[in-house]
Amino acid sequence: MKTVIDKLAWLQIENGKVLCARSKGKSTYYIPGGKRDPGETDAQALVREIKEELTVELNPESLAFYGEFVAPADGKPEGTVVQVRCYQADYIGDLAPDSEIEELAWLGFDDIEKCSVVVQKLFVELNQKQLI
């Protein structure tokens, strides 16, 4: 049986680089975001998660769906996949790691090996579209 981990992510691209985060005690980077709480919409969950993790406020009116990516989940049993719905949005505030986040980094296509499998899929698409 396949287990699906359903996540939301904020895709922020600046100067050909993608904002990525690394959790405390981990070596792999991912796109900031998280899981919905019961009853939350994608927008509500993403705004909450980004505020918790990065100390910035996403503008809910600016949220735009970018795409959905599915890949084997890092560090989980075989058959477990992560499904990530990526959104782009404007933000207010200064980016800073908070909560379980140890480090933020602006990564480009050359950094793909540092990223989770699902983020690698996203990076390939962004590179093909010449966004990174």
Key traits:
132 residues, alpha+beta, Nucleoside Triphosphate Pyrophosphohydrolase, four-stranded mixed β-sheet, four-stranded antiparallel β-sheet
Structure explained in plain terms:
There is one protein chain. The chain has helices at residues 42-54, 117-128; strands spanning 3-10, 13-14, 17-23, 29-30, 33-34, 57-58, 64-72, 80-88, 91-92, 101-107. The mean pLDDT is 94. It is of the alpha+beta class and 132 residues long. 27% of the residues are buried. The chain is globular and about 40 Å long. It has a single domain (3-128), classed as Nucleoside Triphosphate Pyrophosphohydrolase (Alpha-Beta Complex), CATH 3.90.79. The strands form 3 sheets. The protein has a 4-stranded mixed β-sheet with strand order 5-1-8-7. Strands 2, 3, 4 and 10 form a 4-stranded antiparallel β-sheet that branches. It has a two-stranded antiparallel ribbon with strand order 6-9.
Radius of gyration: 14 Å
Major sheet size, sense and barrel closure? 4 strands, mixed
**Roughly how many Å apart are the termini?**
36 Å
**How does the overall form come out from the CA principal axes?**
globular
Proportion of residues in extended strands: 35-45%
What's the count of strands? Answer: 10
Query: Helical amount among residues, as a percent range?
Result: 10-25%
Order of strands across the main sheet: 5-1-8-7
Number of folding domains? Answer: 1
One letter per element, helices H and strands E, the order comes to EEEEEHEEEEEH
Arithmetic mean pLDDT:
94
In the CATH hierarchy, what is the superfamily? Nucleoside Triphosphate Pyrophosphohydrolase
CATH architecture: Alpha-Beta Complex
Give the C-level CATH assignment: Alpha Beta
CATH topology (fold) name: Nucleoside Triphosphate Pyrophosphohydrolase
Structural class: alpha+beta
Low-confidence stretches: none
**Count of helical stretches:** 2
